[in-house]
């Protein structure tokens, strides 16, 4: 099994992901939200690129659909929820379908549609993601959503954590960038202490969302690896 990494949503190319299992990471905070919402009974998550698209879908099914997301880490006006995973508790999301648009994460998911499998990952469900990769046994491309087209420390170290688990359980061959990600994680297993240097981490901290950061840096608190297929993210 070959493992590679793409460092931002803007760097996704069809030839790199075709016929491969893609793992999309936006740990701060879109993929952490998706995993949490589905764990808490959300029927599925529909990722979209624009606010207008999200609103149009929701208007057709207002009692069944909820709106969530952000722009520049801030809740979108008129939406039900922001991009804080702590908002997506069972009481609010169970039995609902979430329509979501974010600055980076949903772009990365939508840009991955040519992959064979698209798995949604974060620190909080890394073990479950690895098990699914082993089950599929395809070459892997880990996509870091990044921040506005730029490399993001947080997604990169999360990639390294996933690779570290996979390496212990399955024979793998790493690209240079995947090797670097693994090395960074192995030297910084206390993830929060390392990603505090990330610009996006600092942005979320400045917004007073320290509890989100604490939550998103936890390891393996969710035993689920949602997948994107036919326009919606669900547990297969």
Automatic annotation (TrEMBL):
Signal peptide: none annotated. Belongs to the ComB family. The gene is comB. InterPro entries: ComB-like, ComB-like_sf. It comes from Clostridium pasteurianum DSM 525 = ATCC 6013. Its EC number is 3.1.3.71. PANTHER family: 2-PHOSPHOSULFOLACTATE PHOSPHATASE-RELATED (PTHR37311). Its cofactor is Mg(2+). This is Probable 2-phosphosulfolactate phosphatase. Keywords: Hydrolase, Magnesium. It is an enzyme of class 3 (hydrolase). GO terms for molecular function: 2-phosphosulfolactate phosphatase activity; magnesium ion binding; sulfopyruvate decarboxylase activity. It catalyses: (2R)-O-phospho-3-sulfolactate + H2O = (2R)-3-sulfolactate + phosphate.
